[in-house]
Amino acid sequence: MQRKPPASPFEAQRKAAQRAALNALRRARRSADKAGVSLSEWEGEFLDSVSERVKTHGRAFGDPEKGAPGQALSSMQGRKLKEIAAKAKGEEPRRRWGKKRD
C-alpha cells in the first residue's frame, strides 16, 4: 500500500511534533509506573488532559503566542513534562532561578 505524501512540509512537521509529544507523554507515564513513583493527582490529570487535547486537536494549547508554530506543546507544558519525567527517574528537581546554594 502506497502512502500519499503530506499536503505540505509544514503539515509533516506538525504531525511529527504531535507524535513526539504523545510519545513523550506516554514515556513519562510509563517510567513513573515502572519506577513505582506515585504522581500527584495534578500531574496525572495534566498528562491525561494534555494527551487528550493533542489527540483531538493536534496540539495542547489554544493561544499561538504560547508556543512555536507547528509544535504540539507550549513552552510551559514542555517544561512541566520534563519535570514529571525527571521525577519519574528519581532525579532532583532543578532550580529555576539563581545560583545553586551550597
**What structural class do helix, strand and pairing data support?**
mainly alpha
Overall average residue pLDDT: 85
How many strand segments?
A: 0
Strand content: under 5%
Parts with pLDDT < 50 across at least 5 consecutive residues: none
Provide a count of the helices: 3
| Fraction of residues in helix | 55-70%
SSE string: HHH
Radius of gyration, whole Å? 16 Å
* Biggest sheet statistics: none
The outline comes out as globular
Measured between the Cα atoms of the first and last residue, the distance is 61 Å
Report on this structure.
The protein is built from 3 helices and no strands. With 102 residues, the protein is an all-alpha fold. The relative contact order is 0.16. The model has no long low-confidence stretch (mean pLDDT 85).
Using brief descriptors, characterize the structure shown:
102 residues; mainly alpha; 58% helix; 0% strand; globular
Blueprint of the fold:
Elements: H1 9-35, H2 41-57, H3 75-89
Helix pairs in contact: 1-2, 1-3
A few lines on this structure:
This protein has 102 residues and is an all-alpha fold. It contains 3 helices and no strands. The longest helix is centred in the first third of the chain and has 27 residues.
